């Protein structure tokens, strides 16, 4: 067969992910803070993009910045404000003057406003820094300080030594005995018990410093921590010939010790959530309002774009590209807010009983339900509900919270898994500590209260998701 070249036309359809489309999809799944940062970054990079003035004062300030000779602004009459630094005005205003009498004699001082924000705050102390500061104040020789630095570099977040002492000695180029001696010194620093290799050693160091040398108490900590954790008190009472009241006294003594001495230095700053959607109740109706605070309105400076376009072909093409980019960003932001509003409205319609009565009335719902309701794809609903929060009459919840699986009920209807979890949490919070509810009993109580058919293993799964211990660990014999 002879080889030959041919040309033919073929018509196909394919989806091309343009940069603009990728940007629109990315904006959907950004959180509120990430969206604000993205807008601020675009404002820095795009010279034709500006923030819409929020008040008339800002518009007047823009007018004042223009050239007075410009004919477009000659008709605008802006009265010049009276100078407040005039001595008569200062006498009239008194303490409310912008230049008070007390400040007139302090012109030579460095103003506080000139300092950076970080310069006014004290640095947060870390566990490593706190221990290192104590070691520098001690009279340890240089070799011991070098060993201590190796130990500090191998502490975990709560202050435990996470490497064997042999490895520490190898890294510090010293003997195991020298590393052991330095470790014992460091375990007596503040907080006491830090640098311990396990829980028993941490508690024993604290007991030694506090003078707690009772043989039974020492034996409890050294050899019977597992029994104490599993609340096996009766075998311990029989072995040591103790009453339950004496066991309780020993437990109270152990509970006063700190099992994680370095945890106080590892506390994270609180994270505050700003809701994207507010749901307000007015009578029997619920109104959805988007939170647009800190999200600036955008506009294109047409005058600047025209002025820059006359400086040549290259400048004109650059400005045209930036104008198209600005238009697409504004369109994408509008589409994002519109999609978020439609999804929030759909959630309110599906979960109306939740907004009226609380979490126990949360209905099962999946992404497909909302997607069909607002005529959008499930992937769009999934993206717009990621990292978004709704302020409801019952608290702030992530939008993903309202999507939960279904559990069958006796009457043929379905209940949401989140409402079942809320009921499990309520039942356990009201139980008798001496007779905690088992998973099987909770399953029977749920059938009576909610009419839901739920297996014992499902109750156990939900209980573990709520970080609640089993009935044996919740039981208290005192």
UniProtKB/TrEMBL annotation:
Keywords, alphabetical: DNA-binding, DNA-directed RNA polymerase, Nucleotidyltransferase, Sigma factor, Transcription, Transcription regulation, Transferase
Superkingdom of this protein's organism: Bacteria
InterPro entries recorded: RNA_pol_sigma_54, RNA_pol_sigma_54_core-bd, RNA_pol_sigma_54_DNA-bd, RpoN_core-bd_sf
GO biological process, one term: DNA-templated transcription initiation
Span of domain RNA polymerase sigma factor 54 DNA-binding: 317-475
One Pfam family, short name: Sigma54_DBD
GO terms for cellular component: DNA-directed RNA polymerase complex
Domain RNA polymerase sigma factor 54 core-binding span(s) in chain numbering: 117-304
A GO term, aspect molecular function: DNA binding
Name of the protein in question: RNA polymerase, sigma 54 subunit, RpoN/SigL
Species annotation: Desulfonatronum thiosulfatophilum
């Amino acid at each position: 067969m002879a080889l030959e070249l041919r040309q033919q036309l073929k018509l196909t359809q394919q989806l091309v992910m343009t940069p603009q489309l990728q940007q629109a999809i990315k904006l959907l799944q950004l959180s509120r803070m990430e969206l604000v940062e993205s807008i601020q970054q675009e404002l820095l990079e795009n010279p034709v993009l500006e923030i819409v003035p929020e008040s008339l004062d800002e518009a007047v300030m823009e007018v004042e910045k223009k050239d007075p000779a410009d004919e477009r602004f000659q008709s605008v009459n802006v009265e010049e404000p009276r100078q407040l630094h005039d001595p008569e005005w200062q006498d009239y205003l008194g303490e409310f003057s912008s230049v008070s009498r007390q400040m007139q004699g302090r012109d030579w001082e460095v103003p506080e406003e000139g300092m950076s924000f970080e310069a006014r705050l004290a640095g947060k102390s870390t566990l490593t820094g706190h221990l290192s500061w104590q070691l520098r104040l001690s009279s340890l020789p240089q070799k011991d300080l070098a060993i201590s630095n190796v130990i500090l570099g191998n502490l975990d977040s709560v202050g435990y030594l996470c490497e064997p002492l042999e490895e520490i000695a190898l890294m510090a180029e010293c003997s195991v005995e020298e590393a052991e001696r330095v470790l014992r010194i460091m375990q007596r620093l503040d907080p006491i018990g830090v640098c311990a290799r396990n829980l028993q050693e941490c508690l024993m160091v604290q007991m030694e410093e506090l003078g707690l040398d009772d043989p039974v108490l020492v034996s409890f900590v050294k050899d019977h921590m597992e029994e104490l954790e599993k609340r096996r008190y009766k075998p311990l009472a029989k072995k040591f010939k103790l009453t339950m009241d004496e066991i309780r006294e020993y437990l109270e003594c152990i509970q006063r010790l700190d099992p994680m001495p370095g945890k106080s230095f590892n506390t994270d700053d609180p994270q505050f959530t700003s809701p994207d959607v507010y749901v307000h109740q007015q009578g029997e109706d619920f109104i959805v309002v988007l939170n647009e605070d800190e999200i600036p309105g955008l506009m294109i400076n047409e005058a600047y774009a025209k002025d820059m376009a006359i400086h040549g072909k290259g400048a004109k093409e650059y400005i045209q590209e930036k104008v198209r980019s600005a238009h697409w960003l504004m369109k994408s932001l509008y589409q994002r807010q519109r999609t978020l509003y439609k999804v929030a409205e759909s959630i309110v319609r599906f979960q109306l009983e939740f907004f009226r009565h609380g979490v126990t009335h949360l209905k099962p719902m999946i992404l497909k339900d909302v997607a069909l309701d607002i005529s959008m794809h499930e992937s769009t609903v999934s993206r717009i509900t990621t990292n978004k929060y709704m302020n409801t009459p019952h608290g702030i919840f992530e939008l993903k919270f309202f999507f939960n699986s279904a559990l069958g009920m006796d009457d043929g209807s379905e209940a949401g898994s989140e409402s079942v979890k809320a009921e499990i949490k309520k039942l356990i919070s009201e139980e008798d500590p001496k007779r905690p509810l088992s998973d099987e009993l909770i399953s029977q109580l749920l059938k009576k209260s909610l009419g839901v058919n739920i297996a014992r293993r499902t109750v156990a799964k939900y209980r573990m998701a709520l970080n609640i211990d089993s009935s044996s660990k919740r039981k208290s014999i005192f």
